[in-house]
Design goal:
495 residues; 8-stranded mixed sheet; alpha/beta; single chain
Length: 495
């Protein structure tokens, strides 16, 4: 599109990060369009990202800023200081984090003796660790120690107790200059076909710095789906990038928030007082919601939704883009997304309910996935005989299938028949209306909890994988727009 002009541009690349299996209410439209509980009308992650990075291009050489769609980086630096992306190679932001956080993120190995307490420092990284265990962090010299530091208590407040505090510097976004971008593009063009998943963090950053080795190229612990080419492609990437510098911008007064899982999403939107204060997050964002439910200590979070005054929402739950009628109750620690629940429904605690519009043979239909917020949609087995090890709402999937009168067979699962899991299980009924789809799916769940029969063998059933294939984004956005217009109209009426 831009020809050679692209080498003079500053580009932001926000990658999708996969199918959002750990936060499936973002699967249909993408995590970058996740609704946030503030703004009038509400903001989405894309708008927050652009706001957070608004100052970067002024101090950035032509290149590409790479970031994911489900994290928030907040920081403070001096009034006269600026964050600069002006060095060749790779440049990454680094945030002080406890060692437990380091096990699920990238960790930079820096010269800790040369670090200070300045809010902003520019350093060179010796090598990069991808989701290391705590022993590996210590062995690699990644662990820093802050002496005589006050420790946070269970509520997150700092106590008077002084102790040494161990921490590491973890990753978030990174920048590459156009010379590196050209090398990677040429490398990609030279491949006949790319048949494996390359991780922008694990496979690029582990090759950088003077201490990088090729050991990681054969390690697949953190790989979502291992392809036959993976080790070979990683080795070639290592050879290509070996010797490239990894510059690190250390932000000592910063916080990194990840909202890419159901538990993180619920915690940060309902219970995390720090993020609420820093971003001004609301318990009720652009919604019509009964006042009586707003007085709990840990509030529910309502985003662009219309709730009847007779419905009850338990604390620590999130409702987004939904319409809930009278006598509807939602249990604690639950997520309701894109749903129309007309009346007389009980959503049990720890539930995940998300409705999608689908289009099959030119006709719009509706499917609602009902799961437990802790269900693992990434877990899969290779054999039908192992289906019993899969869990649905804390119960064996095999037990659930028996209650639903469904037989274990190849036809029960969509897609790859050697990757069988909740993601590919055809267990969600297709209905003609949005409200019916929620009602029927909740009956499925109730049958499991009560250990009573609810036959599904007469229904057209889809897997989550198939729901996304048949999704009708236009109809889903139409439902959101209807809610938006009704809220706007009522607000104008009240003025």
């Amino acid at each position: 599109m831009y020809g050679d002009k692209w080498t003079s541009l500053t580009i932001i690349l926000i990658h999708s990060g996969g199918y959002s299996q750990r936060l499936p209410n973002a699967s249909a439209l993408g995590k970058i369009f996740t609704a946030l509980p503030f703004g009038d009308p509400i903001y989405q992650m894309l708008e927050l990202k652009l706001a957070m990075y608004i100052d970067f291009p002024t101090h950035m050489n032509p290149g590409i800023l790479i970031t994911c769609a489900d994290d928030i980086e907040l920081y403070s630096i001096g009034a006269t200081e600026v964050i600069k992306f002006d060095k060749p190679g790779f440049t990454a932001l680094a945030h002080p984090s406890d060692l437990t956080i380091g096990t699920t993120h990238g960790v930079f190995v820096l010269d800790s003796s040369a670090l200070s307490e300045k809010e902003l420092e520019y350093k060179s990284c010796h090598h990069f660790l991808h989701k290391p265990n705590i022993e590996k962090m210590h062995q690699s010299g990644a662990v820093c120690i802050r002496r005589n530091c006050s420790q946070p208590n269970s509520s997150g407040e700092h106590s008077d107790l002084k102790m040494d505090y161990e921490y590491v510097y973890t990753d978030s976004l990174f920048y590459i200059d156009h010379n590196i971008a050209k090398q990677l593009l040429t490398f990609f063009k030279q491949l006949d076909t790319l048949c494996c998943e390359i991780d922008a963090y694990g496979d690029f950053l582990q090759a950088l710095g003077p201490g990088a080795t090729h050991d990681y190229t054969k390690i697949t612990d953190n790989v979502t789906k291992e392809g036959s080419q993976l080790a070979e492609i990683r080795q070639k990437l290592f050879s290509l990038l070996k010797g490239t510098s990894l510059n690190v911008i250390v932000l000592n007064n910063s916080r990194f928030y990840h909202i890419g899982t159901t538990q993180e999403y619920l915690f940060h939107f309902t219970s995390d007082s720090k993020l609420k204060l820093e971003l001004g997050l609301l318990s009720k964002a652009f919604s019509i919601f009964p006042d009586k439910a707003e007085n709990s200590d840990i509030s529910a979070c309502i985003i662009q939704s219309i709730l009847d005054s007779r419905c009850v929402i338990a604390p620590a739950s999130v409702i987004e883009y939904s319409r809930l009628g009278p006598e509807v109750s939602v249990g604690t620690n639950s997520i309701i997304s894109g749903c129309c629940i007309s009346a007389n429904a009980d959503v049990p605690p720890n539930s995940f309910v998300s409705s999608l519009s689908i289009r099959v043979n030119g006709k719009v239909m509706y499917v609602s996935m009902v799961l437990g917020v802790e269900d693992n949609l990434k877990k899969n087995v290779k054999l039908l005989s192992d289906v019993h090890s899969l869990q649905f709402f804390g119960f064996s999937l095999l037990q659930c299938l028996d209650l639903w009168d469904l037989r274990v067979s190849d036809q029960l699962f969509s897609g790859d028949k050697t990757s069988l899991g909740l993601w590919t299980a055809r267990i969600f009924p297709v209905c003609s209306t949005l409200s019916d789809s929620v009602r029927v799916s909740l009956k499925m769940l109730k049958a499991v909890q009560n250990k009573s029969a609810f036959k599904l063998n007469g229904w057209k059933l889809l897997s989550i994988e198939e729901m996304l294939f048949y999704k009708d984004v236009e109809d889903m956005l139409k439902f959101r727009q209807q809610i938006y217009e009704e809220i706007t109209l009522q607000r104008h009426t009240e003025i």
